Amino acid sequence: MILGAFAVGKTSLVTQYTTGLFSEEYLSTIGVNIKNKTIEFEDKIVNLLIWDIADIVTYQNIPNSYLKGTDGLMLVYDLTRDETFDRITEEYKGFLQQTPQLTKIVVGNKLDMIQPASIENNPNLKEITNIYTSAKTGENVYRAFDILVQSFIQTPQT
What we know:
35% of the residues lie in helices and 25% in strands. The protein is an alpha/beta fold. The longest helix has 17 residues.
């Protein structure tokens, strides 16, 4: 499952990962957009059902049906908009309390739009972020999903 504020690039990350494509056109997700991708990971066949969730869903109002069967959460923020980092920090803490057993990773997206020094000069970003990506260029997109898959494969689910 992939969550975050509007226009952080959730759909673009999923599209880049599942099809290798990027579109400049912004279309807001309404409800849930579900994509499927089968991968081989560490000699295992893994069938990913990726739920791209609209920005209005938070840890406070997520339907239990969305969480049922979920192995991992990818929480995404926009490196160019500080308020999205603040929101994802709150979301991360909320989901830690609500679903401690669930694998969670935090992704800073839109790496192509910032200077690398802005990450180095902000220890708050590095404290919570697992990886920085660019859905536009594809940089680290596959790696982000690999980190998520590796985490939930290695963590027993209850």
